[in-house]
Amino acid sequence: MKILIVEDEPKTGEYLQQGLTEAGFVVDLARDGIDGLHMAQGLDYDLVILDVMLPGLNGWEVLQRLRARGQHMPAMFLTARDQVEDRVKGLELGADDYLVKPFSFAELLARVRTILRRGRSGQEVTTLKVADLELDLLRRRVSRAGRRVDLTAKEFGLLELLMRRHGEVLPRSLIASQVWDMNFDSDTNVIEVAVRRLRSKIDEGQTVKLIQTVRGMGYVLEVPQEP
Ligand code: CA
Prior knowledge:
The chain contains 8 helices and 12 strands. The protein is of the alpha/beta class. The protein folds into 2 domains: 117 residues, Response regulator (Rossmann fold, 3-Layer(aba) Sandwich); 95 residues, Orthogonal Bundle (Arc Repressor Mutant, subunit A), CATH 1.10.10.10. α2 runs parallel beside α3. It is elongated and about 60 Å long. The mean pLDDT is 89.
């Protein structure tokens, strides 16, 4: 999942970028409203975190312009000003959440995960299920046939992507950009290695293999069709 942070205060921006990256997200950081708007227009982010007071364009103006272009990715505002009118203004503009500085990283992370579980449909999804494979987005747990499977943050992100779009062949380039911050030209060996590890944890010893390689195209998670 890809997140854009627009924050002009270097310490806060870098701290959030590092924390969210360690939590398994792909994170871009913009330092002012104009760069932030430009980046958000160019890439399909799953969430935009906007500081309100920004040089160039403020956070509200950035969101206003994105919405005016028909971009409806979830958005969260950060602000130092705890004022009711700010909150109302942010929510009127279609923000999904609002966090007052100073906040703890744990709180931000919890809110980010809640927004991402809701996704664009506005309906909160807490569990993804394909056959006997279950991914619990709340507790960050995975189980296959009722048995717990331990995954790293990246493996969890990869599995979440495959499960959210199960039945769909995902090209390596898409996986690279959504789970790692890489371009298509980057070393795709990283993805192959990660898929192999994930497969050994999910499919090894199981009769039904859920993670399939589609030669020359990418990977798909689905119950294989009977021959
Ligand atoms: Ca600021």
